[in-house]
């Protein structure tokens, strides 16, 4: 078997090719990743649960089928191991949403995406850390301790899906699943130098995704390359009758689009530069890398046009009314009555159901979750519903109309993914508004239900990764994969290889 630090630096597509050519087994890949996880986790804390026994058993079962020639019809990523954000339920494996209120819960069923991964013969390495109930932008709000950024362990990996992003960035997994409600895949992608994709809303089933804000949530891929994300999206995508928001449509040809993009010919592609997300408010190094990337797109033949989306400046405000409102509704089910944590009132306090629920929620929910529940209850309360929630929904409609008009002039829209690189732990914890601003460029895509992707655009002046965001029209995810792959290839040539080659990973030297 090749050394762990050699195998884990392969892309998911490269791993898949070696499996098909019988150069490596799924079990060898799983063991290599588990060795890295064991070495890295004391420092990174990307995983809440490592399902080593299950992953090995799944890999062995795949290898047996592969040896018998029974894997021909499986997706290209068959046999490649994957990590799962702990917001997605897994039968027989603890699922907590990084909250004390669900600690110890073992789901009796799999999410649709997990069923698809298992059918594809892809071993599940474990469940990754996140901000509690996906509510945060730094993974500091996890009830089980923060995840550290592999680029600088004194800094956050972004959020809410910092665990999946750090696991992929730190070579603990080749690919992962995340959930994206306002940027929870893309913003960690920007801060960890990974590719993060939010597919079209309804393009990937949400059945089995623990609900945060149901009109915004979307499961999507986390990877180190655009092609890996495309291949994973084709595994998990498609209509699901168990999800009422699922779109009855064919999976977009995203892998073919990515492969076409690697040819680096963007003649005829119109790239829209969103006026509202350029200039002031962005770290100088981020603005510099963004402008350089736009120039590379032009050099490959793309036509760059400026796009005005006047209502996007209100997206953040509207989001922080709509999202907490849906949170307050979705989290009402955690009451201590049927499953999860139950805390009884102390002696001397009436032993009523209402008191039990109050004590359970007080002990089980963290401060950020409580903050958002309170905001949501206020926005939905009598006398305020029309003024707050109703007005926010009207703004959402205006944002959708802005995007519809923008896509008449451009095939894709581009922005920086995050206004800053990864910040230090504690830097924004006492200022929620500043923390919320981390998602200013990612939130609009969730509000409109359109697909969006962040890819690494190099390193800022502080030596930390920068993200470049593509957005495409609803149900046309492939339109962002082609220019994203082209830019990835051009940047790799410019930087002399992928940016993760400059990532120092002392834990790889400690892997068996």
UniProtKB/TrEMBL annotation:
Keywords: ATP-binding, Ligase, Nucleotide-binding, Protein biosynthesis, Transferase. It holds the Pfam family Amidase. InterPro entries: Amidase (IPR000120), Amidase_CS (IPR020556), Amidase_dom (IPR023631), AS_sf (IPR036928), GatA (IPR004412). It catalyses: L-glutamyl-tRNA(Gln) + L-glutamine + ATP + H2O = L-glutaminyl-tRNA(Gln) + L-glutamate + ADP + phosphate + H(+). It comes from the Bacteria. PROSITE patterns: AMIDASES. Belongs to the amidase family. GatA subfamily. PANTHER family: GLUTAMYL-TRNA(GLN) AMIDOTRANSFERASE SUBUNIT A (PTHR11895:SF151), TRANSAMIDASE (PTHR11895). This is Glutamyl-tRNA(Gln) amidotransferase subunit A. It comes from Bifidobacterium commune.
């Amino acid at each position: 078997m090749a050394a762990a630090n050699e195998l884990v630096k392969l892309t998911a597509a490269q791993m898949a090719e070696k499996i098909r050519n019988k150069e490596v087994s799924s079990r060898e890949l799983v063991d290599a990743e588990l060795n890295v996880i064991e070495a890295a986790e004391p420092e990174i804390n990307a995983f809440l649960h490592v399902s080593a026994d299950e992953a090995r058993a799944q890999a062995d079962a795949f290898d047996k089928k592969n040896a018998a020639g029974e894997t021909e019809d499986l997706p290209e990523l068959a046999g490649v191991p994957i990590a799962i954000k702990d917001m997605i339920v897994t039968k027989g494996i603890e699922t907590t949403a990084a909250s004390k209120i669900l600690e110890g819960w073992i789901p009796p069923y799999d999410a649709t995406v997990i069923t698809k991964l298992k059918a594809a013969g892809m071993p599940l390495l474990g469940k990754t850390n996140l901000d509690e109930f996906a509510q945060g932008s730094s993974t500091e709000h996890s009830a089980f301790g923060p995840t550290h950024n592999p680029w600088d362990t004194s800094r956050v990996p972004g959020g809410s899906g910092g665990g999946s992003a750090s696991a992929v960035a730190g070579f603990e997994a080749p690919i992962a699943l995340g959930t994206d409600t306002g940027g929870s895949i893309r913003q960690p992608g920007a801060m960890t130098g990974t590719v993060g994709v939010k597919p079209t809303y309804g393009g990937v089933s949400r059945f089995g995704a623990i609900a945060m804000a149901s009109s915004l949530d979307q499961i999507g891929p986390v990877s180190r390359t655009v092609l890996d994300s495309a291949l994973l999206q084709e595994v998990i995508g498609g209509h699901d009758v168990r999800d009422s928001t699922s779109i009855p449509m064919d999976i977009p040809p995203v892998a073919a689009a990515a492969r076409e993009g690697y040819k680096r010919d963007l003649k005829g592609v119109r790239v829209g530069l969103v006026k509202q997300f350029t200039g002031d408010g962005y770290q100088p190094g981020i603005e510099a890398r963004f402008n350089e990337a736009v120039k590379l797109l032009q050099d490959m033949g793309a036509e760059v046009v400026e796009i005005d989306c006047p209502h996007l400046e209100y997206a953040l405000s509207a989001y922080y009314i709509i999202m907490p409102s849906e949170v307050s509704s979705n989290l009402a089910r955690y009451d201590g009555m049927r499953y999860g944590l139950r805390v009884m009132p102390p002696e001397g306090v009436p032993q009523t159901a209402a008191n039990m629920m109050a004590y359970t929620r007080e002990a089980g929910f963290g401060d950020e979750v409580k903050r958002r529940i309170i905001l949501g209850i206020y926005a939905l309360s009598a006398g305020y519903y029309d003024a707050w929630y109703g007005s926010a929904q009207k703004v959402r409609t205006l944002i959708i109309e802005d995007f519809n008009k923008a896509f008449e002039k451009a095939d894709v829209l581009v922005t920086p993914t995050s206004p800053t690189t990864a910040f230090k732990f504690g830097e924004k914890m006492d200022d929620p508004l500043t923390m919320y601003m981390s998602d200013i460029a990612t939130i609009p895509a969730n509000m409109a239900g359109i697909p969006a992707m962040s890819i690494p655009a190099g390193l800022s002046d502080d030596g930390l990764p920068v993200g470049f965001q593509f957005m495409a029209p609803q149900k046309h995810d492939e339109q962002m994969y082609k220019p994203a792959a082209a830019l990835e290839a051009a940047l790799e040539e410019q930087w002399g290889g992928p940016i993760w080659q400059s990532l120092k990973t002392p834990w790889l030297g400690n892997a068996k």
